[in-house]
Amino acid sequence: MKVRRFLIIALGTLTMVSAIFIVKAQQQDKKPSSPAPMSGMSNMQDEKMNERGDHVMGFDHTKTTHHFRLISDGGSIEVAANSPQDTESRDQIRMHLGHIAKMFAGGNFNAPMLIHDQIPPGVPTMQKLKGDIQYKFEETEQGARIRISTTSPEALQAIYEFLRFQIKEHKTGDSLDVGQIRAQAGQT
Known about the structure:
Elements: H1 2-30, H2 43-57, E1 64-71, E2 74-81, H3 87-105, H4 110-116, H5 123-128, E3 133-140, E4 143-150, H6 153-170
Protein backbone atom coordinates (compact mmCIF):
# COMPACT_ATOMS: atom_id res chain seq x y z
CA MET A 1 0.00 0.00 0.00
CA LYS A 2 2.80 2.43 0.89
CA VAL A 3 4.68 1.62 -2.33
CA ARG A 4 1.59 2.22 -4.44
CA ARG A 5 0.93 5.55 -2.72
CA PHE A 6 4.58 6.56 -3.20
CA LEU A 7 4.42 5.70 -6.93
CA ILE A 8 1.23 7.75 -7.39
CA ILE A 9 2.77 10.78 -5.67
CA ALA A 10 6.01 10.41 -7.65
CA LEU A 11 4.15 10.07 -10.95
CA GLY A 12 2.00 13.12 -10.15
CA THR A 13 5.06 15.19 -9.26
CA LEU A 14 6.88 14.12 -12.43
CA THR A 15 3.82 15.03 -14.53
CA MET A 16 3.62 18.52 -12.96
CA VAL A 17 7.34 19.18 -13.40
CA SER A 18 7.13 18.08 -17.06
CA ALA A 19 4.16 20.37 -17.65
CA ILE A 20 6.03 23.32 -16.15
CA PHE A 21 9.04 22.70 -18.39
CA ILE A 22 6.81 22.49 -21.49
CA VAL A 23 5.03 25.75 -20.63
CA LYS A 24 8.37 27.53 -19.98
CA ALA A 25 9.77 26.26 -23.28
CA GLN A 26 6.70 27.53 -25.15
CA GLN A 27 7.01 30.94 -23.48
CA GLN A 28 10.67 31.17 -24.52
CA ASP A 29 9.68 30.47 -28.15
CA LYS A 30 7.20 33.37 -28.11
CA LYS A 31 9.75 35.97 -27.00
CA PRO A 32 11.34 38.14 -29.71
CA SER A 33 14.79 36.89 -30.62
CA SER A 34 16.54 40.26 -30.54
CA PRO A 35 14.71 43.15 -28.90
CA ALA A 36 15.72 46.67 -29.87
CA PRO A 37 18.34 48.12 -27.54
CA MET A 38 17.07 50.81 -25.16
CA SER A 39 18.87 53.08 -22.76
CA GLY A 40 17.86 53.79 -19.19
CA MET A 41 15.45 51.19 -17.94
CA SER A 42 15.85 47.54 -18.86
CA ASN A 43 13.88 46.26 -21.84
CA MET A 44 11.55 44.38 -19.52
CA GLN A 45 10.81 47.51 -17.47
CA ASP A 46 10.17 49.50 -20.66
CA GLU A 47 7.87 46.81 -22.02
CA LYS A 48 5.91 46.61 -18.77
CA MET A 49 5.56 50.40 -18.55
CA ASN A 50 4.39 50.57 -22.17
CA GLU A 51 1.89 47.74 -21.65
CA ARG A 52 0.51 49.45 -18.56
CA GLY A 53 0.45 52.77 -20.44
CA ASP A 54 -1.42 51.36 -23.42
CA HIS A 55 -3.99 49.87 -21.04
CA VAL A 56 -4.41 52.99 -18.88
CA MET A 57 -4.33 55.52 -21.75
CA GLY A 58 -6.48 53.53 -24.14
CA PHE A 59 -4.25 53.96 -27.19
CA ASP A 60 -1.18 52.31 -28.68
CA HIS A 61 2.03 54.14 -27.73
CA THR A 62 3.67 52.97 -30.97
CA LYS A 63 1.10 54.95 -32.99
CA THR A 64 1.52 58.15 -30.98
CA THR A 65 4.16 60.62 -29.82
CA HIS A 66 4.37 62.13 -26.33
CA HIS A 67 6.03 65.41 -25.45
CA PHE A 68 6.50 66.97 -22.04
CA ARG A 69 7.45 70.65 -22.04
CA LEU A 70 8.72 72.81 -19.20
CA ILE A 71 7.86 76.50 -19.52
CA SER A 72 8.21 79.51 -17.26
CA ASP A 73 4.86 79.13 -15.49
CA GLY A 74 4.45 75.33 -15.66
CA GLY A 75 4.51 73.08 -18.67
CA SER A 76 2.50 70.81 -20.90
CA ILE A 77 1.73 67.21 -21.68
CA GLU A 78 1.24 66.74 -25.42
CA VAL A 79 0.24 63.61 -27.30
CA ALA A 80 -0.30 63.32 -31.05
CA ALA A 81 -1.18 60.52 -33.44
CA ASN A 82 1.82 59.79 -35.65
CA SER A 83 -0.33 59.61 -38.77
CA PRO A 84 -2.78 62.39 -39.72
CA GLN A 85 -5.10 59.65 -41.05
CA ASP A 86 -5.17 57.87 -37.66
CA THR A 87 -8.34 59.50 -36.37
CA GLU A 88 -8.97 56.61 -33.98
CA SER A 89 -5.76 57.31 -32.03
CA ARG A 90 -6.39 61.07 -32.23
CA ASP A 91 -9.85 60.66 -30.73
CA GLN A 92 -8.59 58.29 -28.01
CA ILE A 93 -5.83 60.78 -27.13
CA ARG A 94 -8.38 63.58 -26.81
CA MET A 95 -10.67 61.50 -24.63
CA HIS A 96 -7.80 60.36 -22.39
CA LEU A 97 -6.18 63.78 -21.93
CA GLY A 98 -9.56 65.42 -21.30
CA HIS A 99 -10.15 62.90 -18.54
CA ILE A 100 -6.60 63.27 -17.17
CA ALA A 101 -6.90 67.08 -16.97
CA LYS A 102 -10.00 66.70 -14.78
CA MET A 103 -8.38 63.99 -12.63
CA PHE A 104 -5.19 66.02 -12.07
CA ALA A 105 -7.21 69.12 -11.18
CA GLY A 106 -8.90 67.04 -8.48
CA GLY A 107 -5.54 65.80 -7.18
CA ASN A 108 -6.00 62.33 -8.65
CA PHE A 109 -2.73 61.04 -10.16
CA ASN A 110 -3.66 57.36 -10.27
CA ALA A 111 -3.04 57.07 -14.02
CA PRO A 112 0.67 58.00 -13.96
CA MET A 113 1.11 55.91 -10.81
CA LEU A 114 -0.40 52.90 -12.59
CA ILE A 115 1.64 53.46 -15.74
CA HIS A 116 4.98 53.92 -13.97
CA ASP A 117 4.28 51.53 -11.09
CA GLN A 118 5.43 54.22 -8.64
CA ILE A 119 4.52 57.68 -7.40
CA PRO A 120 6.21 60.10 -9.81
CA PRO A 121 8.32 62.87 -8.27
CA GLY A 122 6.36 66.06 -7.67
CA VAL A 123 3.00 64.31 -7.29
CA PRO A 124 2.63 64.63 -3.50
CA THR A 125 3.22 68.40 -3.71
CA MET A 126 0.96 68.74 -6.75
CA GLN A 127 -1.78 66.95 -4.80
CA LYS A 128 -1.24 69.14 -1.73
CA LEU A 129 -1.26 72.35 -3.82
CA LYS A 130 -3.94 71.28 -6.32
CA GLY A 131 -5.83 74.55 -5.74
CA ASP A 132 -2.78 76.51 -6.94
CA ILE A 133 -2.39 74.62 -10.23
CA GLN A 134 -4.49 75.02 -13.38
CA TYR A 135 -4.89 72.23 -15.96
CA LYS A 136 -6.22 73.41 -19.31
CA PHE A 137 -7.19 70.80 -21.90
CA GLU A 138 -6.66 71.79 -25.54
CA GLU A 139 -7.25 69.85 -28.73
CA THR A 140 -4.47 69.87 -31.31
CA GLU A 141 -4.62 68.88 -34.96
CA GLN A 142 -3.50 65.29 -34.30
CA GLY A 143 -4.27 64.89 -30.60
CA ALA A 144 -4.39 67.04 -27.50
CA ARG A 145 -2.44 68.87 -24.83
CA ILE A 146 -2.80 69.62 -21.15
CA ARG A 147 -1.37 73.01 -20.32
CA ILE A 148 -0.28 73.10 -16.66
CA SER A 149 0.28 76.47 -15.01
CA THR A 150 0.73 78.01 -11.57
CA THR A 151 1.91 81.15 -9.81
CA SER A 152 3.10 79.19 -6.76
CA PRO A 153 6.89 78.66 -6.67
CA GLU A 154 6.48 75.44 -4.69
CA ALA A 155 3.89 74.05 -7.11
CA LEU A 156 6.06 75.12 -10.07
CA GLN A 157 9.02 73.09 -8.81
CA ALA A 158 6.74 70.07 -8.31
CA ILE A 159 5.40 70.42 -11.87
CA TYR A 160 8.98 70.52 -13.20
CA GLU A 161 9.90 67.41 -11.19
CA PHE A 162 6.85 65.58 -12.55
CA LEU A 163 7.48 66.58 -16.17
CA ARG A 164 11.22 65.79 -16.02
CA PHE A 165 10.36 62.34 -14.68
CA GLN A 166 7.97 61.83 -17.61
CA ILE A 167 10.61 62.95 -20.13
CA LYS A 168 13.13 60.48 -18.72
CA GLU A 169 10.70 57.57 -18.31
CA HIS A 170 9.17 57.92 -21.78
CA LYS A 171 12.54 58.79 -23.37
CA THR A 172 10.95 61.60 -25.39
CA GLY A 173 14.19 63.55 -25.86
CA ASP A 174 12.41 66.73 -24.74
CA SER A 175 14.49 69.37 -23.00
CA LEU A 176 14.83 69.12 -19.23
CA ASP A 177 15.41 72.87 -19.17
CA VAL A 178 12.71 75.48 -18.76
CA GLY A 179 11.82 77.23 -22.00
CA GLN A 180 9.38 79.90 -23.02
CA ILE A 181 5.95 79.44 -24.56
CA ARG A 182 6.48 78.93 -28.25
CA ALA A 183 3.77 79.99 -30.69
CA GLN A 184 3.75 77.41 -33.47
CA ALA A 185 1.07 75.79 -35.50
CA GLY A 186 -1.06 73.84 -33.03
CA GLN A 187 0.71 75.31 -29.98
CA THR A 188 -0.12 78.21 -27.73
